Amino acid sequence: MSRLGKKPIGIPDNVKISMEGRTLLIEGPKGRITQNIFDNLEVMIEDRKVIVTNTVSQSPKFRRLFKKTDALQGLLRTLIMNKILGVTKGFEKVLEIHGTGFKAEVKGKKLILNLGFTHPVEVDIPEPITVQVEKNTVIKLSSYDKELLGNFAATIRDIYPPEPYKGKGIRYAGEYVRHKVGKAAVGAQK
Whose CB among 14, 86, 117, 139 lies 3.0–4.6 Å from 144's, allowing a Cys bridge? Predict the structure, then answer.
């Protein structure tokens, strides 16, 4: 039984939620976003609360389908809650660049990264995301769409992930990179 999925979500005063078929429209001060509703689940909006319910019977005949939709009920509730938080407060991710001579800058709608390659790497910035570069090595990403923000941050990190010997590369703020000992240090221990 999905205990979290059954909990109602409170709607803040500055957020408007409406239904169009199987799509939920969420509009707030930061932007407008949609969420598709999964099969066998229903979403009801009553007195400033969103309630997600499972429409599959709990009888033994439908047990397997009920377990699957029960898990999706909790997922859908969390997705709706994240979208409500996004249009009210927004989300932020911070990336750090480590390495001598490595730097980043924003030019128009492009993020330009100099990471020791033969050429600078240019990344197009998607529409709802804003990028700020501080001290040439700290990239602050912010948006109201948590999913798109996480995917974009992961795309930037994948350009030069942190390597374990010197720690050079792009990493999330606060991410711990475990360092390995080099060849010379390993040979000296014998």
Answer: 86
- At residue 150, φ and ψ (nearest 5 deg) are -65, -40
Closest CA to 170 of 117, 79, 71, 97: 97
As to burial, measured by CB atoms within 10 angstroms (0-12 exposed, 13-18 middle, 19+ buried), residue 104 is: buried
Pick the CATH number of 3-88 from 3.90.930.12, 2.60.40.10, 3.40.50.300, 3.40.50.1100: 3.90.930.12
**Amino acid 138: pLDDT:** 92
- The tokens for 35 are 């969420």
Question: And the tokens for 53?
Answer: 């319910």
Q: Is 100 exposed, middle or buried (CB count within 10 Å of its CB: 0-12, 13-18, 19+)?
A: exposed
Predicted TM-score (pTM) of this structure? 0.81
